[in-house]
Q: What sequence folds into this?
């Protein structure tokens, strides 16, 4: 499942070592800027954070959407890897651990929430990879009797995404509401 995103990332990443370093620096700077400022983060600021000129940014990412898509690819790839990492746990703890990783992923990526409904083929691919990563964990937890039947990973992702998108008074309240949401899928 992560192979598709890995292929897309490999296709985007330059082969020359210096160009690859610039690409990686831009991705890291973009991740930080978008997490702080949302989808409207300044591309000039991203280039500055990466220690490169704006021309280097545009050579790697012709548009803002190209950069956002690459960030999505890297984050979704990490989320798919997280599903593999927890697969050996008992069914409910495995699903819970993956959902915690999903929350971290989406909670720190306001740009992701803003872009989840875009019609980009890359973003559509990312949604598929994300759902394919979580589906076996949900199915295994359902087979073990830990998760309600009649729901699927798409339902759970939307539930958790919605809960994560709301603003809270503090981290403790966010955690309580998230626990309520995740608890609602228990059998």
A:
């Amino acid at each position: 499942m992560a192979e598709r995103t890995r292929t897309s990332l490999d296709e985007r990443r330059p082969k020359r070592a210096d160009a690859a370093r610039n690409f990686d620096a831009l991705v890291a700077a973009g991740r930080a800027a978008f997490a702080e400022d949302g989808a409207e983060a300044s591309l000039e600021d991203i280039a500055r954070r990466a220690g490169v000129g704006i021309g280097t940014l545009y050579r790697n990412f012709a548009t803002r959407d190209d950069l956002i898509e690459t960030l999505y690819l890297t984050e979704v790839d990490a989320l798919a890897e997280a599903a593999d990492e927890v697969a050996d746990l008992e069914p409910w703890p495995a699903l819970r651990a993956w959902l915690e990783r999903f929350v971290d992923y989406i909670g720190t990526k306001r740009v992701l929430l803003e872009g989840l409904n875009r019609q980009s083929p890359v973003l559509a691919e990312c949604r598929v990879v994300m759902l394919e990563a979580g589906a076996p964990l949900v199915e295994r937890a359902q087979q073990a009797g830990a998760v309600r039947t009649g729901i699927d990973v798409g339902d759970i992702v939307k539930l958790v995404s919605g809960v994560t998108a709301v603003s809270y008074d503090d981290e403790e309240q966010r955690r309580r509401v998230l626990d309520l949401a995740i608890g609602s899928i228990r059998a």
